[in-house]
Amino acid sequence: MYIVQSVVNVPQEKADEVIGLYQGRSRMVDAYDGFVSFQLLQNERDPGELTVHMTWQDEGSYVKWVQSDAFRKVHELEKNYPDQELSGIKPTVRRYKVVAH
Description:
Blueprint: E1 2-9, H1 15-23, E2 35-42, E3 49-56, H2 59-66, H3 69-79, H4 84-87, E4 92-97
Antiparallel strand pairs: 1-3, 1-4, 2-3
């Protein structure tokens, strides 16, 4: 298994707006080969900290997704988000290989 987490810090008053975007996400990745699951996590102590947590069967599946046209389409939508304050926020991406469970 392979885990990818993207952490973004948004202004607390915008957190619900961003959560709504993810709740209405395109779901293109859901059918992608090797994709296992998606969760959006909200930090209990800092509600403006949101983490996209994705589980993949292996690193190769994730890499193929990142190199795909579907990935580019999904991320182009984010760049065109009308709220410029949110569109300028860059995530911190962390990648993990599952070594025990």
